[in-house]
Specification:
By secondary structure, the chain is of the alpha/beta class. The chain has helices at about 15-25, 40-45, 100-105, and strands spanning about 10, 30-35, 50-55, 65-70, 90-95, 115-120, 125-130, 135-140. It folds into two domains: about 10-70, 2,3-Dihydroxybiphenyl 1,2-Dioxygenase, domain 1; about 90-140, 2,3-Dihydroxybiphenyl 1,2-Dioxygenase, domain 1. It is built from three helices and eight strands. A hairpin with a 6-residue loop joins strand 3 and strand 4 (about 65-70). The longest helix has 10 residues, at about 15-25. It is globular. The termini are far apart.
Length: about 140
């Protein structure tokens, strides 16, 4: 059976702030909507499901994020995950210039967890806390093809 990754869905506390962060990094908003009703309750498994959503796409057209802000039921605040916790880990992006990407992230109050690492002179990479505590990995290839 063929399978294709459609998107990664991330619940956020502030949809507009999350959109601003990811679009400043270079993603494009494909669409925004508010969803609710029986179909949404059934698909997600929550009674009274009501959320604001946005679909974003990477410039190459291959990666998509679906961001959603719950209006009902209330969003449940949780501690941000740690890199070694089981479950959803992070969302990763390749960037042309990690320093420029980190300046953009800093403008949104988002900073590396520790610093920027060099992986075998192949990548410079870092994990940072994005909007709503999302772990975002940024990686710059050091060998340009």
């Amino acid at each position: 059976m063929p399978i294709k990754l459609e998107n990664v869905g991330i619940a956020v506390r502030d949809l507009d702030a999350a959109i601003a962060f990811f679009t400043d990094l270079g993603m494009t908003v494909l669409g925004r909507d508010t969803v609710s009703g029986e179909w949404a309750d059934t698909a997600v498994g929550l009674d009274g499901n009501h959320a604001r959503i946005a679909m974003l796409q990477t410039p190459d057209g291959n990666g998509r994020l679906e961001l959603f802000e719950y209006l009902h039921p209330d969003a449940i605040e949780a501690e941000p995950t740690l890199p070694n916790e089981i479950g959803m880990h992070r969302v990763a992006f390749s960037v042309d210039d990690i320093d420029a990407a980190l300046e953009i992230a800093a403008a949104h109050g988002c900073y590396p967890l520790r610093g920027v690492a060099n992986y075998q002179d192949v990548y410079k990479l870092t994990y940072l806390r994005g909007p709503s505590g999302i772990i975002v990995m940024l990686a710059e290839a050091l060998t340009k093809s």
